[in-house]
Description:
By secondary structure, the protein is mainly beta. The chain has one helix at 81-88, and strands at residues 16-22, 31-37, 41-46, 49-54, 58-63, 69-73. The chain has a 6-stranded antiparallel β-sheet with strand order 4-3-2-1-5-6, with no helix packed on it. The longest helix is centred in the last third of the chain and has 8 residues, at 81-88. The protein is globular, with a radius of gyration of 12 Å.
Amino acid sequence: MRTNQNILYHTFIGLDVEVINASARELIGKKGKIIDETKNLIVIEKNGKEIKIQKVACEFLFHLEDGTNFAIEGRKIAFRPEERAKKLM
């Protein structure tokens, strides 16, 4: 299970996310379920539409399975999911 303590070592796919701050104002408030993640992008789905969001330009609020929330700046997670654990050690 993903928690606040281990979220950075897991993939974000399947989590609900919301953009809480962004350099592009039109992205603030965008939310949905993460369906894909790359080094530079998070792809969310909302009402059948895919929205691609650059990690480095945003701050995200992740809604975890245990009911807690986790906020983080995108530039801190701008790695491939499989490389994130190595970079954060």
